[in-house]
Design brief:
The chain is of the alpha/beta class. The protein has two domains: 172 residues, Rossmann fold; 93 residues, Pantoate--beta-alanine Ligase, Chain: A,domain 2 (2-Layer Sandwich). It is 40% helix and 19% strand. Strands 1-4-3-2-5-6 form a six-stranded parallel sheet, sandwiched between helices. The protein binds adenosine monophosphate.
């Protein structure tokens, strides 16, 4: 695996590959890799000649400085995992490379960022939009791979890529979970033993909500109330939101929905660690 820390040598390498007719897939990450990330790498290596992974903990998307400071960094293990997965290129920029001048540009994604993560993490999607734009300009991939785990992030990037004519196709990959249902996340390693055990309740809530929705006896409001009450009674757990939305545009669903394009989305702090998860009513839908 070739490792690049600077933009120009990476661009020169990839331009040469493109001249040779190679198709480039790209997986942007913040490192502390797990099997969720590797599923994106696998999707890319399956459909592309060259897979580029970036590891960069982007400061502009952290609205909480303590969260940025404590974000897990496991570079040696990450490199080994990428190598094993057949990733050919690792881009490892630092802040001076990614933000050589102070960024004044502000990105506003309109209604899509006014709910869920956008509402609870002011400025987060501005930072995500900036870093993903920069990375897409640097790597110029044919396809970029993102996880459904960050559904709102995917929808925002999709809007940006469409509106700004980025010549990159996007693929949204399913959520990889631990055997007990907890969605894999780099932040999971920060959970205490007790919090790790408790964290499975998020997936349980999503699954129960989905079952209630399918049964059709409880209204959306009743399902939201049920989940809210279930999580309010927990110690060391603070629910930020639980939403039942249209998976394509995150508009709230108010009554029994005619289509199956429904997503159940949750965010909570468990033992002080912020976790998010979501579940589609129909896992087979394509977004
Ligand atoms: P991150 O390193 O957290 O910025 O994540 C990098 C990419 O991996 C994003 O597109 C995430 O949505 C995706 N990702 C994170 N966790 C998972 C997971 N459990 N399953 C699938 N994809 C994931």
């Amino acid at each position: 695996m070739q490792v690049f820390q600077e933009i120009n040598p990476l661009k020169a390498f990839l331009h040469q590959k493109k001249r040779e007719g190679k198709r480039v897939g790209f997986v942007p990450t913040m490192g502390a890799l797990h099997q969720g990330h590797i599923s994106l790498i696998n999707a890319s290596t399956e459909h592309n000649d060259i897979t580029v992974c970036s590891i960069y903990v982007n400061p502009t998307q952290f609205n909480n400085p303590a969260d940025l400071k404590k974000y897990p960094r496991t570079l040696a293990a990450d490199k080994a995992m990428l190598q094993d997965a057949g990733c050919q290129v690792l881009f490892l920029p630092d802040n001076a490379v990614m933000y050589p001048v102070e960024t004044k540009l502000q990105l506003n994604f309109g209604r899509l960022e006014k709910t869920m993560e956008g509402k609870h993490r002011p400025g987060h999607f501005n930072g995500v939009g900036l870093v993903v734009s920069k990375l897409l300009h640097i790597v110029e991939p044919d396809v970029a791979y993102f996880g459904q785990k960050d559904l709102q992030q995917y929808l925002i990037i999709r809007q940006m890529v469409q509106e700004l004519f980025f010549p990159t196709a996007l693929v949204c990959c399913p959520i990889v979970r631990e055997p007990d249902g907890l969605a894999m996340s780099s932040r999971n390693v920060r959970l205490s033993k007790a919090a790790r055990k408790k964290a499975t309740i998020l997936y349980q809530c999503l699954s129960e909500a989905k079952t209630l929705f399918i049964e059709g006896r409880a209204s959306v409001a009743q399902i939201k109330k049920y989940v809210g009450q279930k999580l309010t009674n927990q110690t060391d757990l603070m629910l930020e939101y639980f939403e039942i939305v249209d998976a394509h545009n995150l508009l709230p669903i108010t009554k029994t929905y005619k289509t199956d394009q429904v997503a159940f989305c949750i965010a909570a702090e468990v033992g002080g660690i912020r976790l998010i998860d979501n579940l589609f009513l129909n896992e087979a839908i394509h977004i």
